[in-house]
Structure formats: structure tokens, C-alpha cells
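#dry-run=false #mode=assembly
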Amino acid sequence: MFHWLEQRPFFFAVMLFLTVAFAGFIEIIPDFAKASQPTVGTKPHTVLELAGRQVYIKDSCNACHSQLIRPFKSETDRYGMYSLSGEYAYDRPFLWGSKRTGPDLHRVGNYRTTDWHENHMMDPASVVPGSIMPKYPHMFTNIADLATAYANANTQKEVFGVPYDTPGMPKLGSWKEAKAQALEDAKKVAAEMKNQNVKDMVAAGKVPEIVALIAYLNSLK
Amino acid sequence: MQSNAQLEYDYSVVKLFTFTTILFGIIGMLIGVILAFQLAFPELSNLFGEYGTFSRLRPIHTNGVAFGFTLSGIFATWYYVGQRTLKMSLSESPFLMKVAKLHFWLYFITILLAVVTLILGITTSKEYAELEWPLDLLIVVWWVLWGVAMFGMIGMRRERAIYVSIWYYMSSFLAVAMLFIFNNMEVPTFFWSGDAPSSIMHSISMYSGTNDALVQWWYGHNAVAFVFTTPIIAMIYYFLPKESGQPVFSYKLSVLAFWGLMFVYLWAGGHHLVYSTVPDWMQTMGSVMSVVLILPSWGSAINMLLTMKGEWQQLQTSPLIKFMILASTFYMLSTIEGPIQAIKSVNAIAHFTDWIPGHVHDGTLGWVGFMIMAALYHMAPRIFKRELYSKKLMDTQFWLQTTGIVLYFTSMWIAGITQGMMWRAYDEYGSLLYSFIDTVEVLHPYYTLRGIGGLFYLIGFFMFAYNMYKTATSGRVLDKEPAYASPMAS
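#status=ok
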């Protein structure tokens, strides 16, 4: 049979494809629907948080930080309750990471504050002596992309049926409404910060990346 | 044409891809060394503002070496091995020649755009699939062009049966096409932005959360399989017998190892998700199949080592044979190491630690890097029709890079296991013994050693680049193509 195939590249390629694809069909199809059910209480991110999540992705925080607490005592003691599938139901893309050069962040909102993040992002070693994390001062001046965050949320709503604008869930509405709401949320974060520049920018209607990122990190619980 | 008439193979596309193999190799590995030293000396992360941080540079390193260096090497050798084992010349078909050239230029532009977008932070965050949707579309175009060239060349062949190397190149083409398309299914958010001035480049994944993770690692693991493994096996099946003048040890073993690898490899993706929230049976399946994977992997490697049976003295005389044999040996090392890490209880310690990049690098530096460089060295006298410039330099390069690899993986083994054990250590009162930062500070010497190992490898790569350049420009001109062992000046 193999000799026969090796002289007929077309059939060879077909056999090859079926052999390779087989595992994917078996593995991926069955549990797909089940794994995407949200856990009770899981909410989609607000526009400001999504803008922060985009900053997290832009600067590849996931290259060094995981968002996946494994079911071991040593992990639940350090990071909190182990992660559940449904908690990720609205995560597009997922951000589990594959390397912990720094600690896990899946529930960082439970034990770090706005103030802590502000100091830490400006100069990590000032809060954690010995830290090897880079400094991120540019996040204090770069403006967060709220418009894309809105497009992100609206795509989730329109294309994937994520329940924005339903009772008990974050409000999205039009771009204008969403922008006003994001600015409101940003003011609350900025009120807890001490960087005058950041406060001035938010007061002037601009949201620096750091504010959005902190809103996102605080939402990880 | 008579079957015994001399065919003039056309190497113009081979030369182009050879050039980018070296160019992207230098860029990708240089960034790798910078990253390594940034972990040891974090102040290096802040030299170029937001564009020089570890986090921004890391995807450029992975994409640069995987899709810049390695893919270039794969394409260069494909257009060389393809023509020769199929007994056809690209110059016989102006159409395929155009396809191949277009394939090169679109590919080259894509990689340049990849560097630019990644440095600007335009990324999807999915590992080895970071490029945003417009670039993904571009990739699909030249991947299809490669397929057209491949099957077009096969269609024109004079050799009835297709050789083992062609099986493996074909598998790369088909599997990566499938994996890439499914993992990069994404929705550009621009089209649902209402009147918000949003970015055209942004997209979100078709899958969410756990499903996204499952598809990502089905892709991520097997991108490794079909970029870092099968095309490299294709190379060794051609270049080792050619360079040594020895026939492949066993045809049966080739068949068994090939179809075994094809069937088993895809299952193993689940080992990236052990103890995560994907269904338990998939994690177990990932572990089990990873162990089964030893058989076809070692099948190929042993087939190659036994090809040298009775001719081991060539290791002393030819640095090229040394590169290939060590590549095969590193392939065996990394395909026994991977399954060990996939066992659940080992994975509990190894996952998230430096042992994982350690494992990746003994495979990529030792197996992929060595094999591609050996292939290019073997091709050089045939495509430039000149003698290899310096055997001595090649020998020095070999030992320097081998030392570099050993430093790299030993330091990362120690670092990974140390950190994995520290994360789970308890004191006598039942509290965690170490804070996270304790487990980072302890790694400093290993990070430094790894940086030095990487630097050795990079210096070796510059020697390779120089040797290739000198061969192409000032090697002694050959009047006739060498049959087996590549001629080299001392």
C-alpha cells in the first residue's frame, strides 16, 4: 500500500491529511459547546477594562504572567481559588500565558490596589525589591484606545451574542454613551492615583493607558 | 528528455531564501540574546523606551527565528531538494518559476511587516500566531503559492516514486495550512465599531476562553511539529545520505516513523494544558500520546544514526557530518525530554518554569539550527559552484555553538526545577516557604549563564554567515559538481 501511495502524490496527500487531521476532529469538536458556558456571576468586561486588556496584550504581559491558577494547594494558597472554565467565557483571546517569569494574575484584583499598581508599573523594583520586570513609564503618557475597545465590545455583542446591555450586565449603548461611561470609570481610578499628569489628562477627557490597565487588573478577581 | 541527460537545476530562488535564512537568523538570534540578558540584568529592558522591553521584543524573537530563520531554511531547501529528488528543473516551467519568485517576495515583505507591527505592539497575543489579520491573509496567499509550486513541481517529476523528504515537506504544507487557518479564525472589530474611530488592525478570536486555549495549543504544539520537526527531518533524510555517500539505513523504518509521527503528533497538543480547565480526558490523552510519540521520533533519529554505520570515521574528517549527527542526537534528547515533561506529575513542577524554554532551545538550537546550517553548507558548493571557504572556521563554530547549547539547556534545567520546587515548598507550620520574588532572585546566575550560552551560539552564527559569504564570493571555483562530501578549503 505504501509503495502504491508513494507513486500517487494526490492520494498520498489525501491520506496524509486525514491521518494528521484525525486527532483534531476527535479532540476539539465534542467539548466545544460545553466549555464556553459562563459561570454564574461572570460578567463581560466594561469598555475601560477592555481598553486595559488591550494594553495588557499590546505590551505582551502574557509573555511573563499567567492567568491560570492550577488546582494545587501551593497555588491556591498563593493566588486564591483555582480557575474555572466558565470564568473565561468572555475572554477573546484567552490570556492564560505559558510562562511565569512573574506571578499569576488571574485574581490579582483581590490583593493589589490601584496605588500599588501605579507605583509598580512606573518602577517595579520600588515596590518589589529584586524585581526583574521592565519599567512601563510610557503607559502614563500613551492614550488608551477606547474606540477600539468599544469596537471590541460591540463585536462581542453583535457577533458572539455576549450579553452587554442586558439587566445586571455592563452597559454598552452607542459609542458616545460608551465613551462617556468609560471616562466616568476612568475618573474613579484616577481619583485613587497620585500622578498629577494622569489626573489632569483624565480631567481633560483623555484616558492614559495606565488607567485602563489598572481598571482591567482590578477587575481580575 | 533522456533520464540520463544532465539536468540544469535552477537555484535562483534557493539563493534568495538562503540569504533570508541568514538575515533573519541574525536578527532573531540577536534579539534572543538581548532577551536572555534582560532577564539577568533587567535595566537592559529600559534602554529603548517602550520599544525595547522584554515583553515587546519576545514575540519578535519567537516569530523571527520560527518564521524568519526556520521557514526560510525550509523554503531554501525545498526548492533545492524538491528539484533534485523529483528530477525536474524550475527553469523548465516559467509559470512555476514566477510562482516561486512571488512566493519569496510576498514572504519577505510579510516578515518585514511582522517585525514592524510587533514592535508597535500590534499583536493578537496568541503565541506563534501573534500577527494580526491583514498579515494573516498575506501569509495565506504565499502559503498557497508554496503549495502551487510544490504540487506543480511534483506534477512535472521524472522520478515516479516520491522520496521520503518530499513526504515530510508535503506534511508541513498540509498540516500548517490546516492549523494556521483554524487558529487564526478571528473577527476584525473595525467592521462592528459603529461610529467609533477604531483601529483597522484589531481583531478578536472566534473562540473564547478554554476553547481558545484548546485551539491555540492544538496549533501551538503542532506548529512546532510541522515547522521545527517534519521539514527538518525532510532535510536530514536528503542531506545526510548525500553528504556521507551512505544509503538510508532502512526504508521500512522510514515508512513506520513517518506515518506514526503523522498520526500521533496532533494528539500531543493537550500536554500544554495539563491541570488547566480543559476536559481531563484531553489532558490525559495529551500526556499519553506524548509518550507514544517517542517511538516515531526516535525511529527517524535512529534511522539516521544507523545510516552512518561503518562510516563513523567521517565524524572526524567532516564538520558537516558532525553538525548533522549532533542535530540528530539533539532531536533524540529533546523528544525524550518533551514526553517526560508531559507526564502529569512532572508537568506539575515543570509547567510555567524555565525548563520549558530550556527544552524548546535544545530542540531549536541543537536540532533545527544545526540541521539548517548543515543543509546550507552542503548546498553552498552546489549553488555557488565554489569550494566551502573554511573548514577550520566551521569546526570552531561547531564547538562554540555546542558549548553554547549545553550551557543553555543545563542552566535552564536547573533554573526550572529549582523554581518549580520553590513554588511548592512549605515550612513546618504549613505556610508557603518562599515569596514569589525569592524564586526569581535565585535564578540570576542561571539567567546569566543562559545569556552567555546564547551569545556563544550567536557568535557561531556570525561565523556561519561569514563562511557562507566568503564561499559565495571568494571560494575556489569548482569545475564540476561534487558527488558526495562537500569540498572545503582548510
